[in-house]
Specification:
The complex is a heterodimer.
Chain A (H helix, E strand, L loop, with lengths): L13 E10 L3 H7 L6 H6 L3 E11 L4 E5 L6 H8 L7 E6 L2 E2 L5 H10 L1 E4 L11 H12 L3 H14 L15 H13 L5 E5 L7 H18 L2 E6 L2 H7 L2 E6 L2 E6 L1 H6 L4 H7 L10 H4 L13 E3 L4 H10 L4 E4 L5 E5 L1 H9 L5
Chain B lengths: L1 H6 L1 H18 L21 H14 L3 E6 L4 E6 H25 L3 H6 L2 H6 L10 H15 L2 H16 L3 H31 L1 H16 L6 H8 L3 H25 L3 H9 L4 H12 L1 H17 L1 H5 L6 H10 L3 H26 L11 H4 L1 H24 L18 H39 L3 H33 L3 H29 L3 H16 L6 H8 L3 H25 L3 H9 L4 H35 L8 H9 L4 H34 L3
Antiparallel strand pairs in B: 1-2
The chains are: A alpha/beta, B mainly alpha.
Amino acid sequence: MSNQPLASKNEPVIKCDSVYKIFGDNTQRLMQENNNSIDVEKFKNEGCIFGVNGASFEVHKGEMLVVMGLSGSGKSTLLRCISRLTDTTAGKIFIDGENLLEMNSKELIELRRNKMGMVFQSFALLPHKTVLENIAFPLQVKGMSTAQSIERAAAMVELVSLGGRENYFPRQLSGGQQQRVGIARSLAVEPDIWFLDEPFSALDPLIRKEMQDEFLRLQGLLNKTILFVTHDFDEALRLADRIAIMKDGVIEQIDTPANIVLNPATEYVAKFTNEVPREKVLKCEDVMEKQDKEAKTSTITVAAEAIIETVAEAVLNESKPVTVVNKKGKTVGVLNRKSIIHVLFGENAH
Amino acid sequence: MTTAFKQNKLLQFGLLLVVFLLLYNFIKPSDDPYLNMLWRLPALIAWLPQWLTDTIKYIMFDWISVEIYNPELEDTEEVSLVKEITRSLSWFVLFFIQSIREFLVGGIKTIVTFTSWDFISDNPWAELPGLPWTVVFGGATLLGYNLGSKKLAALVGISLAYISIFGQWEPTMKTISLVLIAALISVIIGLFLGIFAYRSKAFEVLITPILGVAQTMPAFSYLVPMIVLFGLGDHAGALATVIYATPPMIRLTLLGLKAVPPEVVEAGLMSGCTRFQLMYGVMLPTARQNILIGVNQVIMQCLAMVVIASLIGAQGLGDDLLKALNSLRIGKALELGICIVLIAIVLDKLSLAWANKQTDYFSNLSFSERHRNKFILMTILVGGIILAMIGKLVFGDGINYFFIIDTNKGITTDWFWQAGVDWIITNWYSSLEAFKVWFWEDVLSPIKNAFLGMPVIATFTLVAGIGYIIGGLKSAIIVSAYLLFIALTAWWDRALITAYLTTIAVLVAVTFGGVIGILCAQSTRATKVLLIICDTLQTFPSFIYLIPAIMLFNVSNTAVLIAITPYAMIPAMRYTVEGLRNVSPSLQDAGSMSGVNRMQRLFSIELPLAFPHIVLGINQTVMFALAMVIIGALIGSTADLGELIVGSLSDKDGIGNGLILGLCVAFIGLIIDHLLNTWARARKEALGLA
């Protein structure tokens, strides 16, 4: 996962400012009547449907934001607004500080050719092209020569471990392999921003796990700015730097996985977090307490970044609190047995 | 009570039938002109054909004249602009047909076009012969091998060898040159109009009914207009073929584009495609399955038109087939028909293999490997020419079998078929004759009279009523409008006769076709065989079906029906088999687990689920029957619309007559098409199959 500080001082790569996407034939008329301001209740009464309802957030360089929601929550619509595959009704979207919604089609094409890559749920490979040709397609669209693009595509094939299947057609590949092609294609132009729309939802559970690992490996190598859409809360917890939970077009909560699990903002979010095995999500730094200088500590130390599950047994076997250290080896807190037990069995456990 | 009636379609149909029968029995011709309108509507648009003729002629010959320099007269002359445009188009098309043709069988017009007649007389060497058949044979086989496989190469080779050995080389090459150009034009126009219809909803709405009419209108009816617009000859034949062959291409392009998954389009957009790149790099290739079906249909339609196009001057197999038909030579006609089928199959498979060709980027080929095909081709060319020269020495002044086997000088099985027909006639003449008389007097005649005795108000009630029950008010209005047009022309009685012939043919065809389909659907192998037979029979020029009928039953209504029925059976068989075989396996399993026996499975699971698809087959059966009824007018004095359409071919003022008669036929077809399609769609939705 990303090593970047979450609240970077730099300019955000993606910035959404009260973005609305409203469906309905009368939307345009209502907007005009209302002087381009949006009155949610009134619009809803007139039969409009809010795909995205006032979304505001920022994504920084190298950060992975996972948008989580059930079907119909507007998560894919939000993604399509930011990739401008669909028109945004109101609000502002900035990509690297540039106003996305004011770009003309030429600028938009340039942006997509150089800065954006996208992976789709149904893979969306071109059925008439081989693995190699599919991956080379965005390069050829840019105008790169056949020989050069094929060479680059061959390198991408290696990156996603599909060596030996270059000349297969999509129909000859399994779902997981097809999505590897989709991933390779989206990365071929070396984009800064990587959109993934439920990339693993169409895959079997075992393959999904494998692809998630593969995805984390790639992100470790490439460190892209990522907007990842999923309906699978476990997947979101596993991958995200931050999670945005959506319901009916509204972002209910946007925070780090640990904070969402520890402090669900709404009842809706709590429904998801209740079932989550906390020891698999929380890190030592999330549950540690301040170090009491007087108190004696155990001889062993644990890393602040470590997931509770991996250190639970060691901590529970110690009678004294265990010191938590950050990457530089500096002590940042202590971990009591009690905290671990709370994580494992809930607050009511004694 | 009322809600029960609203929901019970059977009850509604029953009531409709009662009303229809009442009207049928009580409305009689009347002397009162107003009362008589219940019996027959006045021919209010009887003037339309003549007006159409005059208008087209005016536009063609008198409207906006321009001065054009004529190099042969060395002077300017007054020419109508429209005529000049259409003639230029004709010349353009003809040039390409002729170029291919002269390449294949020799000729000098193309060379003359680029030089002059003087150049030819000065340079006799420029008068090149066509390619020896061995070269074309070898080249095409090589192409088949490179595009596809050994199997495709064998198919191409055997087909061309058959054509050559049976002495049909030259007419076949003439036909191929025409079909290639016509198919190419159709595919290009179809593709572009399809794309345009996809982009513009308004254009789609505009073009959909036109496509419907173009596909149901008998080709005969626009032959005369084609002659007037483009003159007699191969180009007119090719352009008539284009009109006939383009609609399915447009439809399937549109269908294919609409079926492209939205995510694929988005993937294209996110790759940074421009509009052009998106259409040609992403959408069209993704829609290729449907587009290739379109190309296949274009090729089939083109070859179906070969014979009809020969009526307005197209040379080749169609012309010969028509002559064989006129002299009642069934064997010859059959051999020619097989040639047409073979071209259809070869062109179809080659185009398919070409579209599926894959590029290999990593093959590191040596010089000789890369140029291997060129070497082989050169070898074939040189070898073929040398062989032809040797042939000249061997065969002397006779036919040079290594160069080209002259038309009708090859092997033939004509005598065999002729003997067969002779045998049937000598042995069965009296029983055939008896059947003919009985069939006419006891079956056809009464039904015909029943149709003619139908008051126009009863027809309207029936048709509009069915429309209302099936598709609501909108359907009722649509079918009534079609019917009204026919009723207001001077040809209502003739339309009734066309309807009666079609009805009987459809009933017989659906019964037999349905039973054959059900039987064949029981086995996978029989299904496969039946589908191949259907493909072949469908590619056979429909004229061939006339031959046995006319030989056995002379010129008569019975002969017409005997000719229509087997042709109309094709879709009935095909759709029955397809419908039954496509019933989902999970439903079959569910049936098996409920312990159904074979009959129960057929009647309670397979047939009800397949029925909507079978209805679409019946719809096609009606279209096939209707098309054949018109062609059937060639061999029987039926007194229907077809007879007049065929008559308009030899009429100077036949433009308007042909077109309006054609529209009448098209509208009969469209009424049935609308009703059956609406029903099938609703039913499929109800069954969750759509």
